[in-house]
Write a structure and sequence with these properties.
- The chain folds into 2 domains: 3-130 and 250-326, FAD/NAD(P)-binding domain (3-Layer(bba) Sandwich); 133-246, FAD/NAD(P)-binding domain, CATH 3.50.50.60.
- The chain is elongated, with a radius of gyration of 22 Å.
- It contains 8 helices and 17 strands.
- It has 327 residues and is α/β, with parallel strands linked by helices.
- Strand 1 (3-9), helix 1 and strand 2 (29-32) form a beta-alpha-beta unit.
- The structure holds flavin-adenine dinucleotide.
- Flavin-adenine dinucleotide binds next to helix 1, helix 2 and helix 7.
């Protein structure tokens, strides 16, 4: 079995940044990704526009040219794909890592397609796979989705969008503009404060003029084939409905992290235990990179501020390797 210096779990922007840095520094590395290259971005809404300008999404200062200052999903796919192909990064796609176990001789990594041994492992698995569930009756009906892709699907339909953050607001506005009858259901008293500064006035104006209906301080109690039951401050509302987009955020796979021996904080943030100077977790040789570092605080890390993790981790691995050689 081939022995690696580092195996990277996840081929998102940050896993790719780690692979590129490992390659540049001459490490034996492999990225294992359960979907296509940058799987999370591939699954974003087709017309999605990043809030970051393109230079802030760059890896290793490789120029990211986009038509507008803030790139679209397709441009980001093009950019990260070209990084993988032009640099001939070693990446196994459509292969899911199922288990990482530590032994005296490093790590054994088991995927659904193979077995690997590595001195170090980087977990860069993001948070986009597990939606925050509403846990209400009817949530499993086929008309309910936790991922939004294309507004065309909802044209001329009664669409309820649950949530108040960027994903929900983008979906509500885009679907309304393509002819959906949109109702927003918001748990708190207002549209989220972190909604993009150029989008927030747009949604507030659409709500105020009555184009999009909004229920604040409200919760969906049940989803039925043709209606929703909503608890509002004015009482229970029965809302006619064809489709539901429950865009209430996503969370990291905590069970996966715990199974690897990574400690999580006991509070609701569930912050993983790692050294901020090296990104190494409480399990020696096991590192975290990218948005996974934020636990339930999924807004804390993004591409812009976590792309630096790649250099920090690879430099720590190299330092340890040098120490081993001299001891
Ligand atoms: C709608 C939206 C807009 C955003 N806009 C911006 C923005 O403008 N600027 C910005 O900086 N950030 C933005 N973000 C956040 C940004 O997309 C994420 O920060 C980024 O994807 C994080 O990269 P990552 O590599 O850490 O995780 P991800 O991109 O989520 O990559 C994790 C990868 O791990 C893979 N994986 C998971 N489990 C396994 C396993 N067991 N085995 C193998 N592979 C596995 C997944 O398939 C995935 O490809 C946005 C996010 C969303 C949802």
């Amino acid at each position: 079995m081939e022995r690696l210096d580092v195996l990277i779990v996840g081929g998102g922007p940050i896993g790719i940044a780690c692979g590129l840095e490992a390659k540049k520094k001459g490490l034996r590395y492999l990225i294992v990704e359960k979907g296509p290259i940058v799987n999370s971005l591939f699954n974003y809404p087709i017309n999605m526009q990043f809030f970051s300008s393109s230079e802030r999404l760059e890896i290793d200062e490789i120029p990211f040219i986009s038509k507008e200052a803030k790139p679209k999903r397709n441009e980001a796919l093009e950019y990260y794909r070209r990084i993988v192909t032009s640099n001939q990064l070693r990446i196994h796609l459509f292969e899911k890592v199922e288990d990482v176990s530590k032994n005296e001789d490093g790590f054994t990594v088991r995927s659904d397609k193979g077995l690997y041994t590595a001195d170090n492992v980087i977990i860069a698995t993001g948070f986009y796979d597990l939606p925050n569930m509403l846990n209400v009756p009817g949530e499993n009906l086929p008309k309910v989705s936790h991922y939004y892709k294309d507004p065309h699907f909802y044209a001329s339909q009664k669409l309820a969008v649950i949530g108040a953050s960027n994903s929900a607001i983008d979906a509500a506005l885009e679907c309304w503009r393509k002819g959906s009858e949109v109702t927003l259901i918001i748990r708190g008293p207002e549209v989220g404060q972190r909604v993009k500064y150029w989008v927030r006035p747009d949604i507030i104006n659409r709500i105020n003029e009555g184009s999009i209906q909004a229920y604040y301080n409200s919760n969906v109690k049940e989803i039925r084939e043709t209606e929703l039951i909503i608890e509002t401050p004015e009482g229970i509302v029965h809302l006619e409905n064809d489709f539901v987009l429950a865009l209430t955020g996503y969370m990291p796979d905590f069970a996966f992290l715990e199974a690897l021996g990574i400690q999580l904080s006991k509070d609701e943030k569930r912050l993983p235990n790692y050294d901020q100077d090296t990104m190494e977790t409480n399990v020696p040789g096991l590192y975290l990179a990218g948005v996974i570092c934020g636990g339930m605080e999924t807004h804390k890390w993004f591409i812009e501020n976590s792309r630096i993790h790649a250099k920090i981790i690879v430099s720590d691995i190299l330092q340890k390797k040098a120490q081993e050689t001299h001891s």
